[in-house]
Amino acid sequence: MYKKYLVVASKKDRAGINITTALSQYKRNPVFLGMQPDKSGFDFYLCDEEIIRTENLDLNRINKYDFVIFASKHQSEKKEKSLSIHAPGNWSENSFGGERGKVCRSSGLFQKQMFDVLNKFAKEHKLNEKYSVTMECTHHGPLINKPCVFIEVGSTEEEWNDRRACFVIAKTISKMIDDFEENPYREVAIGIGGPHYCPNFNKLQLNSNVAFSHVIPSYVLPLTEDMIKEAMEKTEEDVEFVVLDWKGIGNAEERQRIVEILEKNYIRWKKTGEVGK
Predict the structure, then answer these.
(1) Domains identified in the chain, total number
(2) Full-model pTM
(3) What is the pLDDT of residues 163-175, one digit of tens each?
(4) In the chain, at which end, N or C, are there fewer CB atoms within 10 A of the end residue's CB?
(5) What's the CATH number where 27 sits?
(6) Which range of residues forms the domain containing residue 74?
(7) pLDDT digit string (tens) for 137-155?
(8) Closest residue by Cα to residue 262 from 243, 234, 247, 245
(9) Taking the CB of residue 247, how many other CB atoms lie within 10 A of it?
């Protein structure tokens, strides 16, 4: 069970600063000074540069903690209003930090519970009326050796300065640090296929017993054995099976190739429509 959390943001990131400012009201004593052994707690780490690049981070500092939460802005070409969660890593390129073909350690159980809490608080504060609450596929850096997750506000200056949106993110982080439970009855899975914002996996993450850790989107396919092995090895829990967004994989040849890779490695798989059946 995670006890010592580190919340990381960049001083150059307006959303990150607004989130950590809102989160400061929930701060108790520093983890290493005042924490009781049976209670969870968190410290802040505000970086001078962008947090998606590993070289900008003090890894010795990060390695003292059990779990890292990156609070960040989100940018997109469509400039959609969003509250999002994802694991960091690079499947096929590293132009946005990290290392090619490497992903961070990720907890499917933590991400599922965080997604539930974020959806709940977004509804309570009526943010769901204008923001989409969504998972994203695994993407961008940094690459660290601690389990971690990004939680973001997108996608323009207007949203990054939205105090209510940043408060909801902060409240979600605080709730997770206080109340995260390792539910042994969840089925931990990896997702393959579909677009960046994972609409089919979103539904399952929110409404089924499946807890997704890493998601490999269609735009980084074709899948390799190294990719699926990396996703499984970098999942904190034992992976029960892989979920395929069947129609979101592209063509019949690629679907068949993915199935052959999974079955060659004795990895169970299901289509999204078969989950829960």
Answers:
(1) 2
(2) 0.96
(3) 999 999 999 999 9
(4) C
(5) 3.40.630.50
(6) 4-179
(7) 999 999 999 999 999 999 9
(8) 243
(9) 14
